[in-house]
Amino acid sequence: xxxDANNAYLESRVLSAGPLELVRLLYQxxxxxxxxxxxxxxxGEIAARSRSISKACEILMELIGALDxxxxxxxxxxLAALYGYMxxxxxxxxxxxxxxxxxxxxxxxxxxxxxxxxxxxxxxSRPPAATPWSQPMAAEPxxxxxxxxx
Length: 150
Fold this sequence. Notes:
Elements (H helix, E strand, L loop, with lengths): L1 H15 L2 H25 L2 H21 L2 H28 L2 H27 L25
């Protein structure tokens, strides 16, 4: 029952999240998957370790796919290269059953996640851009007559 409630909460959070929050959720899930992989590796749980590493790899692929290389320019290209490096380190950790690559990826992902958290907080503290939809409606003159009120 707890798992169902947690899944429903997460689904609701994902469906209502904006782009910044979605990337934050990916980083959180990625660090969680790598932590699980390390725990499973230490416990000798091979299948569970592989599943956790696969999940972390899938998250990295989502992050790569989310990059806007046109508008992101050099930063997007560098992030793509870093994500690719992290992906290869995860594969190495799985193949060699080694903790060192997992620890490295966890450190990189946690650092990126912290940076993204800071960027998200900075964007939340800025006032929203002025749009016609964010402005209060102009009051109608009292002399205005509506067909339903006449």
